[in-house]
Each structure stands twice: as C-alpha cells, then as structure tokens.
Input
Amino acid sequence: MPDQDVRLQHLKVWLDEQLAILFADQGWGAVPPATLTAASSDASFRRYFRWEGEGRSFVVMDAPPPQENCKPFVDIAFLLAKSGINVPKIYAEDLERGFLLLNDLGNKTYLDVIDSENADALFSDALQALLAFQQLPMVAPLPSYDVALLRRELELFPEWYVKRELGVELDSTQQQQWQRISDLLIDSALAQPKVLVHRDYMPRNLMLSEPNPGVLDFQDAVYGPVTYDVTCLFKDAFLSWPEERVRGWLESYWQQASALNIPVQPDFEDFLRASDLMGVQRHLKVIGIFARICHRDGKPRYLADVPRFFSYIEAVIARRPELAELQALFTSLRGGATA
Output
C-alpha cells in the first residue's frame, strides 16, 4: 500500500477518536455519518481533507513529518488569532504524526471568486487583516528574513530554473552578474523596516469567510521587510492586474499603514522602489521553486505560471535602471538556452 494511503488510514482512525471527544465536549451528541473528501493539496507535502456530516464540517490537515512540521502552524495561529485575524481554530493536534483538526473557513478562496469588479472590496478586507498582523509586537520566537535566508531563496533560481529547466550552466561572467544582482536585492530587503511577514499572502491562501478573509498557510511566517506581503498580494502567482490598479492599491495600503504607525517608508516613491525590488527577489525565488517542484517532485503544472513572473520582473526592470544587469543576464540565458 502506498505511504500516503497508509497515512490516510492512520488519519481516519485518529480523526474518529478526536471527533468523538470533540462532540462529547461540545454537547453535540453522537458523531453522525459523514464524508471525508480531499479539500486541497499544495506545492508542499501537506494535504487537506474536509469532513462533512449533518450540517457540520471540519478540515483535517495531513502534514507528514519529516517533510512538514505542524508546530509553527499551531504557534502562529494562536498569535494571529489574538490580533483578531480569522485563522483556523485548532480542535485537536498530533504534532508527532502531523495531524490537525481545524474548523472550516469555507471552500471558496479569493482566487476562486475574485474579478475586476469585486477586487477592490476583497482586497480592502485583505489589507485590514494584513495591517492587523503588521501591528503585532515582534516578541514571538520567529526567525528573521536575514542574509542567509534571502540568499538561499535567490539561489533556487540558478540551481533549479537555470540549471535544471533551461539546462544552462552560468559562466563566470554570468555568475558575477548574478552575485551583484543578488547583493542589490538582499541589501534593499535588509534596509527595510521589519514587521511580521506571512510570506505567502496571496489570493490562494485567503478564504472568502466571515469575518473576511480567512487566512491560511501562515506557518512559514518570519520577521522581515514591510513591503513583502503587500507586494505578494497584488503581484500574485496565479493572476495579474493592470499596473495602474496595483499602484493604487499599494498607495491605499501605504496611506493606511502610515496612519497606523506601521513602519513603512515615509516617502511613497521610496516605498514603491522597495516593493519593486522585494517583488523581484520573491519572483526569482518562486520561479526556482516551481522548477524544483517540476523536476524534483514531478509536478510540472506550476511551470505554466513562470511567464507571469518574468512579466512582473521585466516590468520592474523597465522602470528601475539599477536592474539593467538582470535584463542582460536574462538575455544571455535565453541565448544559451536556445543554442
């Protein structure tokens, strides 16, 4: 029997035990007949299932050790809930085996429902949640977005996209270009004021819920650059918006953050530059991750969104002369890949 099927059997046994305890504690009577269906899976090893029976529903997370660790999810959920953010309530946990029983925040993500007409309202709600957790004091024992983490993320691009996807080895000139580009992006990120950073604050991880939004996938949170999450929100992996509209949303966030004394850059143009460079760092990282998911994990579908990231990066290059060397590197890589 495949390992995942064995895990699913263990999960079902654990779930039956926990539901019996939960229903008894809540005075809900006997656990009714129910269905357990796949709710979603993501680019990691985690899986989610939805339990539904007689008008009640729960979500079950399967996060297999050693690839996944549930403890950060549990700890950060508690932290965010204290600030009034709508995150999953944890009814039961088995951290050793990687099982969590959660309340159900709904089955519609922002990505499922957002369009040009409702985007302003949905993003307004998303910004309120973002502003709430950016106001949290930085006292939790979370890691920082430091030089090592930023560089490790950036190195995913040459290691997995350039080498594995394009089949190109960087020559000495390209390696020097890459190091200078990396240094520029890292220096810009480290120069920014720090706040709590979700790291994947995007429509796919926001649920249409009450209160709106429900926030998921926050287990990799760190303390890091103030522009990171808002840039991630509006320059998404799976859908794009006109640049002028993005600029308007960024300005709305910047104004609200300033009024709340969140440490954004005092000048909006400086904020935009920091956001642009932060976005380039993230997008290079994600291109590398999507290539890794294809070549290491056998999930090629994510590569279809790589052109979107290059479009984001090239739009920034066009207005940021300091990134001309990145354009030169892209041009030389395309030549090498087609040679």
Q: What stands out?
A: The longest strand covers residues 35-41. The beta strands are 35-41, 47-53, 56-62, 90-94, 99-103, 194-197, 206-207, 214-215, 222-225. Residues 71 and 159 are 29 Å apart (CA to CA).
